[in-house]
Write the structure tokens for this entry.
Amino acid sequence: IRYAGKEVNMVAGSSKEPVNVNIFINNEKVNNITIKDTTLYNIIPRADYNTQILKLEFQSLGIQVYTFTFG
């Protein structure tokens, strides 16, 4: 996902067990999170506004992603 902003939020949840997600910016791993409950996750907290390419790598099945917001 190509985006312009400081941060990225995602509303997601897991239908079964928690799901680990690797987060990449411009093909560089910057974070990993565990999705469990359906809620808002701040997946990219940045201090600088920039245009980036976001890639999410889900480690297992069962995740439900509802929306993204960019700030």
Q: What stands out?
A: The chain has no helices and five strands. The first strand starts at residue 2 and ends at 14.
